[in-house]
Sequence to fold (209 residues):
Amino acid sequence: MALIHDETRPGVAVIGGSGLYALLDDAEEHVVETPYGPPSDPVTVASVGPRRVADEAGGALGVVLNRATEVPVSEVLGNWGTLAGEPPVVFEGGPVQPEAAICLARARPGVDDLSGFNRVSGAVGTVDLSGDPDTLREGVLGVRVFAGYAGWSPGQLEREIAGGSWFVFDALPGDAFASRPDDLWPMVLRRQGGLMAAVANYPSDPTLN
Fold:
C-alpha cells in the first residue's frame, strides 16, 4: 500500500500533485548545461531532511502507508509525537533516504490556512518538521511521520500502471492515517466491491491460497 505524489494516475491512495519538490518550500529550478546539451527539463534542487538533493522534473514520489515501526515519534521528534495519531510511531516510507522524514497531516474540517501546512489534496498535506508543533495543534486531526520514501523516474510509474503492476483506486482522507495500518490494504479493496473485495481475502503469501 503506497501513497503516491504525481501528476498522473498512480497507485493506491492517490493524493495528486506535480512531483516531489512541489511539496517543499525551498525548491529551486536550475538549468544545467552538459557536453550533450541541456536536459529535457530543468533540474530541481530542494532539501529533504538535512540534505540538498536534486531531481529532474516529472518523476513521482510515494510513501508506504502500512509499514509501522516500533519507534515512537516522540523518541526522535519530541513534541511532534503528541500530534501523531494511533499508532504514534514512525512509519517506513520507503528505501530512498531513510534518514529523511516526511510528515503528512490531516487538517480539521473548515480549516483553510495553517502555518507550515502545505496542502496537497483536500484535507491532506505536508508539514515542516522544523517548526513548532503547537502552531498546528488546533488545526490538524493528526500527523504521520515517514522515514524515507519511494521514488520513480519520469515515466516509470506510468509504465508500471500500464503493465498492470498497480491497483488504482480513489483515496479517502483517512487512508494515510489508518489506526490499524495492517488492515489498510484489505480495507481499501473491500470498499471497491465485486472481484476486488474478494482479493482482500488473499493471503499475504499466495502460495498458501
In short: The first strand starts at residue 2 and ends at 5. Residues 4-21, 50-54 have pLDDT under 50 and may be disordered. The chain has one domain: 2-186. The chain is about 10% helix and 30% strand.
